[in-house]
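User: Hey, my collaborator sent me this sequence without any context and asked if I could get a structure. I don't really work with proteins. Can you help?
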Amino acid sequence: MSSLPHSPAADRNKQPILDALTGILGEEGAALEIASGTGQHAAWFAAALSKWTWQPTDADARVLPAMASRVAEAALPNLRAPLPLDVMAPRWPSEGFAFAAGEEEKQFDAIFCANMLHISPWATCAALMQGAARHLRDGGVLVTYGPYIEEDVPTAPSNIAFDEDLRARNPQWGIRWLKDVAVEARRAGLVLRERHAMPANNLLLVFGF
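Assistant: No problem. I've predicted the 3D structure and written it out in structure-token form, which is a compact way to encode the shape of the chain:
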């Protein structure tokens, strides 16, 4: 059994997310994952989506060595070694990003970000949207996953308790209003195109140009 860091939540939700992604993504392409954490999602998705190149990243340099070990353990030709990436940086790092001539920064067909917005300051939402707009090719999609608060949709008691716990741990954290996230997307030139209800009161959202 692997001794690598393990997230039970990532293990539970990886298949439902993959099921949704298979209906959203095209047959092949290049994906950038933001806030990859343990790398469990990256390894699972790359194994199932063999025609997709998957690039995991994280802002926390401390998790990168274990994630690199997971990538090495998976030994998948379409799963790249993890890179440091902080969405708040004015320019996302070019290290390991092979830009084609004339493409500038637009090189990804999909950007995936799970469970980041509620455990980071609100400013990361605008940064994520702006970065996605810079790096997505025409027709590309930004896919986010996690809990959200919606107008006219009752918030699950578990999410209310989770939101209270997050804000007690850090006042800058908390479950975000979907309407506010959509506003930040529009400011970056992206539109909320799909909303998928997921297990455990989570949503998978798809943004595109």
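In plain terms: Residues 13-208 form a domain with the Rossmann fold fold (CATH 3.40.50.150). You can pass these tokens on to your collaborator as they are.
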